[in-house]
């Protein structure tokens, strides 16, 4: 038996693996920070072995409420991910599973590799009206990819300015469900036979950053980039030395303007899909609140997996954290600006216990996002 995480996005430290029934592990801390929770590793030589794997440092992870009622994911082929029996007690997360294959992968959520990211970018660029802008480089030297989707105007179209719509994902790299959602959204948005997508492309320019934090994603981080910066706390004063990812995106936004902004995330503790708006920013208006409510109502109609009952407490007037993307963009550009959260667990209102909240469900929620955007599109700007 061997356990390893020496691959893209991998994260685990082996304390002991002498017998299948007593495997003891730790999650490696994100570089330059105290954060950790993401794990991803392979166990090999384990066919028909009753594995009992304990993550000993789970009790000090960044979000211990994330372990409550949580089930880890596993895969033999890294394509289909399913949930396996997992329990949390006395600060230890224990995964118990008897593999039917020689090797099996285990993870906090279905991984989204940098290789798959490269495939997503390449595939998107084969569609008409799509171009790639490399906004800059990360601290590890990786490209910061921006997809710009801008269809040429129809010959008989009226000359009216298109609305700039920005969508970003994976500021927190371990929240892989965010890029799974982007994959589903892009597949629909670039479908030339989809009428909603065609109308949105005719009236908008889309600026999409599928992975804001490629360094953290490759390193197997939960929360931060290569040097320990939480990108979703860098929007007020980003720098090239600490958070070039945010600085490059923020500067490009200043050039394009923003009429719609969606920042896609995952929440460790709450078993729901929900939206957090820019509550508490100085310039919040009733019109901004009404537009967000309209968007949420349209998304509930488009997807039963989305709900608006459970979510984060609203910030009091004047008490918004302005270092966060949604708040910064709303205040700077006066637009519809939201954070979309997805669960690491199953969706409590619409459970599917075998897979929980899954890549396929993320993708379908991404499809529904376009229905909601279409419903409020005429009110943007």
Name a few traits of the molecule.
five-stranded antiparallel beta sheet, 381 residues, globular, 17 strands, Aminopeptidase, Immunoglobulin-like, 8 helices, seven-stranded mixed beta sheet, alpha+beta, 25% helix
Describe the structure in your own words.
The protein has 381 residues and is an alpha+beta fold. The chain has two domains: 2-107, Immunoglobulin-like, CATH 2.60.40.3120; 114-379, Aminopeptidase, CATH 3.40.630.10. The chain contains eight helices and 17 strands. It has helices at 114-124, 177-189, 195-203, 214-219, 244-256, 286-302, 325-333, 359-376, and strands spanning 2-4, 13-17, 23-26, 40-44, 51-55, 73-75, 82-83, 86-89, 92-97, 103-107, 130-137, 143-149, 163-169, 204-209, 260-267, 274-276, 336-343. The strands form three sheets. It has a seven-stranded mixed beta sheet, with helices on both faces. A hairpin with a 5-residue loop joins strand 11 (130-137) and strand 12. The protein is globular, with a radius of gyration of 21 Å.
């Amino acid at each position: 038996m061997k356990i390893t995480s020496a691959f893209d996005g991998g994260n685990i430290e082996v304390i002991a693996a002498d017998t299948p029934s007593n495997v003891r592990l730790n999650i490696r801390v994100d570089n330059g920070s105290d954060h950790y929770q993401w794990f991803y590793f392979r166990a090999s030589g384990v066919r028909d072995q009753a594995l009992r794997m304990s993550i000993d440092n789970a009790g000090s992870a960044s979000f211990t409420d994330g372990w409550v009622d949580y089930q880890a994911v596993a895969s033999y082929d890294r394509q289909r991910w399913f949930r396996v029996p997992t329990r949390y007690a006395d600060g230890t997360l224990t995964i118990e599973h008897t593999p039917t294959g020689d090797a099996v992968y285990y993870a906090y959520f279905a991984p989204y590799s940098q290789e798959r990211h490269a495939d997503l970018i390449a595939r998107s660029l084969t569609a008409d009206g799509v171009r790639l802008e490399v906004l800059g480089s990360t601290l590890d030297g990786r490209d910061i990819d921006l997809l710009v989707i801008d269809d040429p105007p129809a010959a008989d179209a009226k000359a009216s300015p298109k609305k700039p719509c920005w969508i970003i994902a994976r500021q927190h790299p371990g929240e892989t469900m965010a890029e799974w959602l982007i994959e589903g959204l892009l597949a629909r948005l670039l479908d030339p036979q989809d009428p909603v997508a065609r109308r949105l492309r005719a009236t908008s320019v889309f600026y999409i950053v599928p992975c804001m934090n490629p360094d953290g994603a490759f390193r197997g981080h939960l929360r931060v980039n290569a040097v320990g910066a939480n990108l979703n706390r860098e929007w007020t004063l980003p720098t090239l030395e600490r958070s070039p990812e945010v600085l490059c995106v923020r500067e490009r936004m200043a050039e394009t303007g923003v009429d719609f902004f969606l920042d896609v995330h995952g929440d460790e503790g709450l078993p729901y899909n929900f939206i957090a708006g820019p509550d508490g920013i100085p310039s919040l208006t009733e019109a901004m609140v009404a537009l967000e409510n309209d968007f949420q109502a349209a998304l509930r109609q488009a997807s039963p997996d989305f709900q608006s009952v459970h979510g984060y407490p609203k910030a009091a007037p004047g008490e918004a954290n302005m270092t966060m993307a949604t708040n910064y963009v709303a205040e700077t550009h006066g637009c519809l600006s939201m954070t979309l959260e997805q669960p690491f667990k199953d969706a409590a209102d619409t459970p599917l216990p075998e897979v929980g909240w899954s890549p396929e469900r993320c993708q379908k929620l991404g499809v529904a996002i376009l229905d909601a955007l279409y419903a409020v599109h005429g009110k943007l700007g």
